[in-house]
Amino acid sequence: MSISPTNTSSPASNTEQFSPEASSILPYTEGLSGVNLWLNDITSNVLYGTLGLIAILVLTVRVAQVVNSHIRFLATLNLPSEQQTYWKRGSKLWLKVKRELLLAPLFRKRHNKEIQLSSAINVGTLPSRLHSIFLSFYILSNLLYCCLLDYHGQSRASLLAEARGRTGHLAVMNMLPLFLFSARNNPFVSLLGIPFDTFNLFHRWVGRIVVIQSLAHTFIWGVNNEKARGLERLWSHLCGDPFLIYGFVSTVAMTVILFQSFSVVRHAFYESFLHLHQLLVIAAMAGLIMHCKIDGLPQTTFVYTLIALWAFERFIRLCRIFYRRGTKMEVEALEGGACRVTFDVRGSWTMSPGCHVYAYVPSISLWMSHPFSVAWVESGHDQAKLADTTPVSPVSQTTISSSSKDSSSHKIETSVSHDSDADFKVIPKGNGRTSVSCIVASRTGMTASLNRAVRESRNGKVSLRAFIEGPYGGIENFKSYGTVVLFAGGVGITHQISHVRDIVSAFADGTCSTRRVVLYWSVREVNQLSWIKPWFEELNSLPRRGCEFKILLYVTRSPGLESPSRESVLKKETGASEHVTFGRMQVNDLVRGEFERRVGAMAVGVCGPGGLADDVRCAVRGVMSGNGGGNVDFWEESFTW
Fold first, then answer.
1. Hey, how many other C-beta atoms are within 10 angstroms of the C-beta on 425?
2. In Å, how far are 3, 24, 37, 156, 301 from 34, measured between CA atoms?
3. Reduced DSSP (H G I as helix, E B as strand, rest coil) percent helix, strand, coil of the chain, to 5
């Protein structure tokens, strides 16, 4: 069905002369002639309806998981380790779905390990199997909607006009998920339990679809106009019509976004990419709204709505920032190319373990922000409690065992005594301030500038004015699992240490089902173990109430560090409380061993380089298979962007 134009500009001026064939094409070169508005609406409604059905399906699975976790939590809260055996096993069908679909990489193993053509050229990562199915379905459905035309009963020019209208309409309609998937305040992150990293992946692919549809819209317009006017008059017509100029500006801006967002460029010049990306988005949306407004196109109201939603999300960000007001940021240089950043923020802090914040440091990066995982939070309430209560005495006996003088592994065990009366001390009121600490590794851009500034200071410390936005994330909860095994690589410890603190603190309160927690942390150099030494000491001072807690550390490089000197170095960097091994983690063996020793249901989490994450994922899928498959869940916090 073709719709006649209701509010369009004249496709040709009165002074131009055209052949009869060209005159028959001209009505279909612009405006709504030949555009099937009814089918356009049908395709976009089906597109949104499909996304809605997928969201409902994911929400149903999410609710089922939350309900199951809560039932398990209530059933095992007061049970000792030996009575959680029932929860070791899971449904064979569900285990197979998780192993072959939910947790599966696209092919055999690689998922988050970056594909590098050289040390300087990174072409990104592979989507998982589930991500690939969704993206393939979304791409193919958009292709189908663009090709769903009336191929009979109309002229070639009219058919092209219908295709032009369809591609332009879908390009605009796809901007709603495009904007939503990129929003920090996306409500579907917490509602569906899908991490922001996954939405960011979808944002990039939907953006590519929008650009391709916009280019197709422009190309099809050019085909009809070239046939009617010829190339010379087509160009003069384009340059003389504001409606076309604004549309062309929008298409060019989107095309530049496509090329500058390639992984090679994005990773090599991320902050420059971000600046240019935002400016190009503004240019594309400004051109689009003028393009729609001048000719009164049906999408005008929708574009205004998109801009309003974008502005509203930015307004929420500003509210989050100004609620905390400006904060004092203390930066301390650490060994191993990192620094400890501590924000002194106003008011109380509602923090979920595993969350992150965005920091704005005008003196370092002007108006740009950078995400930091939150490792440790101390409220005024906590600080007052530590200051006014009797300190716990972490004494008794320290034993260092080594199989031989030249052993590369030292196991250091500490038995700790605690004053049980400390649990019943009166807790005084805090000072209304909260310190939020992060560990920041020096990479490029803002983190490199921050690291340079602190190392150029006299005492290795610097105080800066900053703004903080958050917290975001923290949607995983491990307290219903009998066994929690966490892997961290490098600065990924900042994400995992918050989970460890949350669970170990819950030991003392009797508010978790967890009876066994194991943290594996791998670093390149031994001096990097000192990054979070004070927090390790505090964790080791907390009462366990019969629950098992282990920290096992791995150092992959130890140049010039001979065996006789290792013991003193380990005591200096970590204190006498950890198991340190020089060499790489054998992830598969570690996961298999923890699986055999598990208590109840088991959760495995990983945060670190892509290669480590892929190894842990592969190992977890391995223990799910066969007759010995057990109730194991996997959670990954990735570093991709």
1. 12
2. 6, 12, 9, 10, 22
3. 55, 20, 30
**Which pairing describes strands 602-607 and 409-416: parallel, antiparallel, or unpaired?**
unpaired
CB atoms within 10 A of CB 456: 10
C-alpha span between 402 and 466 (Å, rounded): 47
111: helix, strand or coil:
coil
Q: What does DSSP say about strands 326-334 and 461-473: parallel, antiparallel, or unpaired?
A: antiparallel
Query: What integer pLDDT is reported at residue 517 of this predicted model?
Result: 94
- Cα torsion at 208, 209, 213, 216 (round to 10°)? 60
Of 377-391, 398-412, 530-544, which range is least confident?
398-412
User: Could you identify the residue written with the tokens 């209530």?
Assistant: 74
pLDDT in tens, 260-280: 888 888 877 777 888 899 999
pTM for this predicted structure: 0.86
Predicted local confidence at residue 428, as pLDDT: 42
Helix axes 196-240, 129-147, angle to 10 degrees: 30
**CA distances in angstroms from 67 to 63, 71, 73, 480, 514, listed in the order given:** 6, 6, 10, 11, 17
Mean pLDDT (whole number) for 488-506? 92
Mean pLDDT of all residues belonging to the chain:
83
Residues 606 and 486 sit within 8 Å (Cβ to Cβ)? yes
Beta pairing, strands 369-373 & 355-360: antiparallel
Torsion of CA 282, 286, 288, 292, to 10 degrees: 160
Give the range with max mean pLDDT: 26-35, 156-165, 564-573, 617-626. Answer: 156-165
How far is residue 542's CA from residue 519's CA, in Å, rounded to a whole number? 16
Please, are residues 343 and 376 in contact by the beta-carbon 8 Å criterion?
Answer: no
Interatomic CA distance for residues 115 and 370, integer angstroms: 24
